[in-house]
Amino acid sequence: MTGDAPSENASLSRTEKLSFKASLRRFGVDSLHGWITILAAFNATPDLGNIACPSLAMVGTGEGKEACDLFDEFVNGVAGPVAQRIFTQVERADMHCQFGNLSLSNTVIYDWL
Q1: How far apart are CA 100 and CA 104, in angstroms?
Q2: Largest Cα span, the chain
Q3: How far apart, in whole angstroms, are the C-alpha atoms of residue 53 and residue 82?
Q4: Are the C-beta atoms of 36 and 5 separated by less than 8 Å?
Q5: Cα dist from 107 to 44, 45, 67, 104, whole Å
Q6: 64, 37 contact by CB (below 8 A)
Q7: What is the pTM of this model?
Q8: pLDDT tens figures, 42-86
Q9: Alpha helix stretches (DSSP H) within 3-112
Q10: Euclidean distance between CA atoms 7 and 84, whole angstroms
Q11: Which helix (H) or strand (E) holds 87?
C-alpha cells in the first residue's frame, strides 16, 4: 500500500485494516486520498427527480446525522412514492444495514417487495 493508507503501526485493528484495503481494491486505488477522490464522484442528488418508481428508504437512528440527512434528501427528492422506515435502538436495528436485527430489516424489505 502506498500513499496515505494506514501504516502497520496505525491504531486500526487487523479487521479494520483488511476492510480498508478491500475498499481501496474495490475502487482501484491505493491510498486514502485516492479513495476519497473516487467517492466524491458518487452523487445521485442531481438525478433524484428522475426516480419515479416506488422506492423503499431505510435508515437507522444510530447511523448518525449524515445518514439521516441523506435519507431525508432522498425521500424529499425523488419523484415517485417512497415507503420510509427508520429503525431504532429499541428494535436493536439502529445501525447500518440493521446488523443488530437483520430479521426485522428483512421483514420490512420483503413486505415492501
Answers
A1: 9
A2: 49
A3: 9
A4: no
A5: 27, 28, 21, 5
A6: no
A7: 0.71
A8: 889 999 999 999 999 999 999 999 999 999 999 999 999 999 999
A9: 14-27, 32-40, 65-77, 102-112
A10: 41
A11: strand 82-87
